[in-house]
Amino acid sequence: MNSVVDLILNHRSIRSFTPEPIKGEQLDAILASAQAASSSSFLQANSIIRVTEPELRERLAEYAGQQAYVADAAEFLVFCADYRRHLAVAPDAMTGFTEQLLIGAIDGALMAQNALLAAESMGLGGVYIGGLRNHPDKVVEALSLPVGVFPLFGLCLGHPAQIPERKPRLPRALVVHENHYPAEVDSTLLAAYDDTMHSYYQGRSSNQKSVTWSGQIRAILGKEARPFMLAALQRQGFLLK
Amino acid sequence: MNSVVDLILNHRSIRSFTPEPIKGEQLDAILASAQAASSSSFLQANSIIRVTEPELRERLAEYAGQQAYVADAAEFLVFCADYRRHLAVAPDAMTGFTEQLLIGAIDGALMAQNALLAAESMGLGGVYIGGLRNHPDKVVEALSLPVGVFPLFGLCLGHPAQIPERKPRLPRALVVHENHYPAEVDSTLLAAYDDTMHSYYQGRSSNQKSVTWSGQIRAILGKEARPFMLAALQRQGFLLK
What we know:
The structure is a homodimer.
Chain A: H1 3-9, H2 24-35, E1 46-50, H3 54-63, H4 68-72, E2 75-82, H5 84-89, H6 98-121, E3 125-129, H7 136-142, E4 149-158, H8 172-175, E5 176-178, H9 187-203, H10 213-221, H11 229-235
């Protein structure tokens, strides 16, 4: 279609980086790209913590579940929902609404995807680190996040030292619907996708395994999903009502 | 820097469209771009409802607060958090966790930003419609969304019939912090930004007004923010714990 679409379709998460740093002008363009994203009601309810201290990176890598690339990547950015500035200009601001967390999460992700694509357009690569949400309280403390600020996820960026395969996505017919959500999930399409993913996991160049997407989903959703998240958000002033 | 960064920095929300449709191959690339985004634990916990029925578009335009472009745009996509497929393959799945809504909201926005940038790379334009969250229950009903699915926001896409100015963003020093969140919000920078925005709103080519960013924030956050959102999410099976 065009080079932008090709770039987007060529995305794969990069978890191994060379030691080469990201140039100042590159980081500048990445951060400007993040800020260029749309903002709901122009609230601009997000901040980015750029983590440069090696000791702090090591701590975050551990919190994220021993993900060494959090420490090793040239850059590590933490995207936060942030109403601290709003509370500074409007001390009587009504915060804590569920809607405001949605805005922070959605707009923070729009910014991050701009940042990642800008980086990828320079030949850099990256990976999102949802694992920061394993220990939200520890991340809050490590980054000195005040009430009104919550760490959503991290983003590692650097020069790729690997070219992993691209994972096949769910068939579009299971994801994109016209006008109405279908009454039934198409089990035939799901079964075909399970075959596709089974072949992918068995045939890929590293970390081969014998699993299907459905099997992975049953394993992941058979367990609690970070059951401490609601309380952690509430301690930072979110999801109070 | 490069053409991708230029495209990202050149973003402005488009709210007026020509009647020209989006070609099938363009829509195909836009939807493929959406699906190419990263997915937390590869859950793929999102769906897109493409709304093509004119009557349905009119209803959604009304729900969104009389936003006529929701009816007029060549395409209107509703991005949803979606655990319905997971419940189909894992009927005993543990859902309703706050973490799972975060994943749906974040990953849905990553997909949407890919879709918007893909569209913009073709000379198309668009605008996000958070206003769908004015009436989440009505949107759920209009699109027949089952339990496990929640409409996050809409995206209008089409051929631009306007070129609005780009709004100046908060100064980077207020948004990007190194290692730690600052103890104080820099009031000097905020005041300077208020001057910048006041000049912008007074000088722009249409809809001039005499306001500052701080003034807008005080007005918006002086009111409740969609206080029905928590209950609406819970009715769809989200934020139960």
